Amino acid sequence: MSATLAKRQERSWKDSALSLVKRQETGLFGVIVVLALAVSLANENFLRKDNLYNVLQTVVVVGIIAVGQTFVLIAKEIDLSVGSVLALSAVTAGSVYGSGANPWVAAAVGIGVGALCGFAVGSVVVLGRVSSFIVTLGMLSIARGLTQLITGGLPQTMPSELSFIGQGRVFGGIPVSVIIFLVLVLLGQLLLTRTVFGLRVTAIGDNDAAARTGGIPVAWTRVLTFVLIGTLAGVAGIVFSTQVGVAEAQAGLGYELDVIAAAVIGGASLSGGRGSIIGAFLGACLLGLLRNAFILLALSPFLQQLSIGLVIVLAAIFDQWRQGNLHHLHPRRLRQQLIRRKA
Where in the cell is it found (predicted)? Predict the structure, then answer.
């Protein structure tokens, strides 16, 4: 009996270890550690506290939106408008402040505009039954056009009272924006894994017909995921504009690709039903680490883009392996296929 129990415990331990290894977050963390050690050997400045804080500060904006994008991807949707919504939220806050409003009211209005954009997108997707790819592509242009109309191409001054959000440091030098990012990651992970809303989002992405049969309000939940990412894009807009001191119409250009990359690298599946907020955080950190490494090592920016593309492809392949979809590439199966063809 004792021998049997020992074997069961050993098997359970092995299964747990294999499950941990297969988790996207584990692989990502390992990649980050190995890459960080390699870069630190090539440049001793990499592991300096100030440089590590700078790496985190550069990924804050993309990372905040990636939290929302993960929810959207899990629900089997996508949002391409986040960069433009970021800019629209920021310039709205700057414009409201310029009209004499309280700085915090201006920031709240800017974030509210982001949430309203998300609600508009979600409503069209659900009520119009239009692909979120098309709707958010349209919102990308609409929000950017509104940004240009509001600013006339001129930068909007952000309230000095809010500058500590993007430029302040506490607890011995930790950027305030990094703390905001970490808090949002924690709240996002709790929302996804410990609330009814998070369970509904996962169920919808996994099988929306079954979710509807089970009494889940599929339409309203989908709308809420877009409201969430729009709100976080608004928050990111305030953080970004307070980092640079002004709100510009061209802010956030191309950010949608980095946001999707961070979420996908972090384990969010484009086919829906799977994703991790912690993974999105690590994905954003990996992108920031790569960019910082290329700067420190004075490597070509073109090589930087190539490496990021490779990381995205490798993350997608790892996701397929993790789901057990690469059995057909096992050497034994390949050999059997070759024998059948010859026969």
Answer: Cell membrane
- Whole-angstrom CA distances from 41 to 293, 296, 324, 337 are 11, 12, 36, 45
Q: Model confidence over 124-135: pLDDT tens digits?
A: 999 999 999 999
CA distance readout (Å), 76 to 133, 136, 272 = 11, 14, 4
Token couple for 117:
């954009």
Inside any domain, residue 184: yes
User: What's the whole-model pTM score?
Assistant: 0.86
* Enclosing domain of residue 311: 46-316
Q: What whole-number distance in Å separates Cα of residue 268 and Cα of residue 257?
A: 14
Distances (CA, A) of 98 to 19, 95, 330: 54, 5, 63
Asked whether residue 33 carries a pLDDT value surpassing 90, the answer given is: no
Residue 157, beta-bridge partner list = 246
Q: CA-CA distance, 163 to 243, in Å (whole number)?
A: 7
84: CATH: 1.10.3470
| Cβ-Cβ contacts under 8 Å for 149 (sequence gap 6 or more) | none
- Report the candidate in 100, 114, 108, 95 with the shortest Cα–Cα distance to residue 152: 95
Paired strand residues for 170: 174
Mention every residue, 6+ apart, whose C-beta is less than 8 A from residue 252.
Answer: 61, 82, 83, 84, 85, 86, 87, 237, 240
Cα–Cα distances in angstroms (integers) from residue 49 to residues 45, 52, 179, 235, 270, in the given order: 9, 5, 15, 26, 36
